[in-house]
Amino acid sequence: MAGTFTYGLELEDGKPADPPVLHTAVPTWHAGDTIPLAASKTLRVIETRFVDEDPVPVVEPALVVSS
């Protein structure tokens, strides 16, 4: 897909996140950014690691506050 970036996502311990792969129009992710996946599921980027020069966002589940 044109204009789509694909990232592998990892947890802090190096295991694959859920989902393990993200397809997005966002070209970069930084610590503190949140990745909304569904109404009740969001991931927070805690750092970016580089594997073979490719960025790999390290994520953790983020608290979703409903209004």
Q: What would you say this structure looks like, in words?
A:
With 67 residues, the protein is mainly beta. It has one domain (5-62). It has no helices and five strands. It has strands spanning 5-10, 16-24, 34-38, 41-51, 54-62. A three-stranded antiparallel β-sheet has the order 3-4-5, with no helix packed on it. A two-stranded antiparallel sheet has the order 1-2. Strand 4 (41-51) and strand 5 (54-62) form a beta hairpin. The model has no long low-confidence stretch (mean pLDDT 90).
Short summary:
0% of the residues lie in helices and 60% in strands. It is mainly beta and 67 residues long.
Topology diagram in text:
Layout: E1 5-10, E2 16-24, E3 34-38, E4 41-51, E5 54-62
Antiparallel strand pairs: 1-2, 3-4, 4-5
Give the beta-strand count.
5
Give the rounded overall mean pLDDT.
90
Identify the strand order in the major beta sheet.
Answer: 3-4-5
**What is the element string, with H for helices and E for strands?**
EEEEE
